[in-house]
Amino acid sequence: MGSQEYYADVKAQESIQLNKKILMYIQDGTSLGFGCGAGILQLEGLRGFGFFAASYLAVIGIFVGWFCKFKPAKYYQSPIQEILVDSLFRELAGFVMAWTFVHALVG
Amino acid sequence: MFFPELFTGAVGAAVDLTLDPMLKYWVLFPISIVMILVGVCRQYIMVLLSLKTKTVSQTRLTEVQYISKAQALLGNGSNLCEESFKMRQEYLANILAEGKFLAQKEKPETPANPLTDPNASDAMMGMATSNLANYIPQTLIMWWVNHFFAGFLLMKLPFPLTIKFKEMLQNGIMTPDLDPRWVSSISWYFISTLGLAPVNNLFFGGSNDEPELQAIAQQQQQIQSVVGGPAPDVMMKGLSNDLTIAQHESCFDAIEERVLRLYAD
Lengths: 107, 265
Prior knowledge:
The structure holds two protein chains of two kinds. Chain A has helices at about 1-10, 15-40, 45-65, 80-85, 90-105. By secondary structure, chain A is mainly alpha-helical. Chain A has one domain (about 30-105). The longest helix of chain A is centred in the first third of the chain and has 28 residues, at about 15-40. The radius of gyration of chain A is 17 Å and the shape is elongated. The model of chain A has no long low-confidence stretch (mean pLDDT about 90). By secondary structure, chain B is mostly helical. Chain B has one domain (about 20-45, about 60-70, about 80-105, about 120-245). Chain B has ten helices and two strands, in the order αααααβαβαααα. A two-stranded antiparallel ribbon of chain B has the order 1-2. The chains are: A mainly alpha, B mainly alpha. The interface between A and B is medium-sized, with 35 and 31 residues. Chain B: It is found in: Endoplasmic reticulum membrane; Membrane.
């Protein structure tokens, strides 16, 4: 019964928006912070990007575990898309900016 | 001939340059601060520009609201019980078919010219100003950076770049063999334009009035008739037809089962 399943699948768009906003705030802050860290450690080349990937995945892992209690589908419409993919390039750009800035300041 | 040149290029790249440490304080910081401040100013200017309230005649407002009421009934009718849905369906279908709340009863003979219509030109002005608010600061900052901070290297990027970036990022530095990782100030401008969105969100993104502004903008967009869109009387007729044939299925059917399943685990 299609419509019954549809009615059972009630989602509040406002709450999903708020959840996305919180996630974005956390990701923005942590990617800038880890960018500064990479600059202070004077990482160069692929090691810096590896540091970004590791920190990005770690933050998402902690977020899913701590905020979502390992049930991200309960808080997001399409969890992988919204948590992992959507803000990847935004955070990468922020990370690279903080990284080059601190790298130039320290080095 | 070709290989030795390439070889010296590789040797030249390995040479480490020493930069004046004061470059950080007199070039890197000013550019960053100016970019952040311009971002903030642009945000507030956009708010100021978008807060123009427009007066709309009451009849036009009624018309728009009855159209959206019919659309809401079609979209969310399953939340009503059978009886109330039937009641609303009948009423709205009648009203819309009659065209009781049409703002303009008789059609104007020629379609309105979008260039002379004040509302349409207002909308176009809004679009133009928002575009200009994006482009003017960018061009200005780029000119400023290129003009005042040209002709020297600013820093060494922590990641390697291909040789293609040399022309763009080492603009004005006459060293053909230098590693493209050494870049001039314009590249810091590029990197920070890309990466400033998280910074702005972090420091200035906590405002709570965003949803309200969006709602206002959406409402205004709804009221302004789209140029070349369907006329309101045609829309009303179509909605009336849709309403008369709409099938109703209530979401309250078998709700006990679904609620029990929702809280089962």
